[in-house]
Automatic annotation (TrEMBL):
This is Small integral membrane protein 1. The lineage of its organism: Eukaryota, Metazoa, Chordata, Craniata, Vertebrata. The chain crosses the membrane at residues 47-72. Keywords: Membrane, Transmembrane, Transmembrane helix. It holds the Pfam family DUF4731. It comes from Microcaecilia unicolor.
Length: 76
């Protein structure tokens, strides 16, 4: 029986054997998006990216609020 390409679980049962064979293929190869996600969204790098993203989002919202408040409350 030839192994199949890709990841997943393969179950095969042989007629002349009393045992069943189950093999799990944990291939690390995947699409470019999966590699990108695995690199930037998990582990220590993932935590750092999330923290920097949160800080960046905070400052963007803060600046937008500051500019909006300045023009709304500006004396005429």
């Amino acid at each position: 029986m030839q192994p199949q390409e890709g990841s997943g679980v393969q179950y095969s049962r042989w007629n002349n054997s009393a045992q069943d064979e189950v093999s799990v293929n944990t291939s690390t190869q995947g699409t470019a998006w999966n590699r990108f996600y695995t690199t930037l969204c998990t582990g220590r790098i993932g935590i750092a990216v999330k923290v920097l993203g949160g800080i960046t989002l905070f400052w963007i919202i803060f600046i937008i609020g500051y500019v909006t408040g300045y023009y709304i409350h500006k004396c005429k």
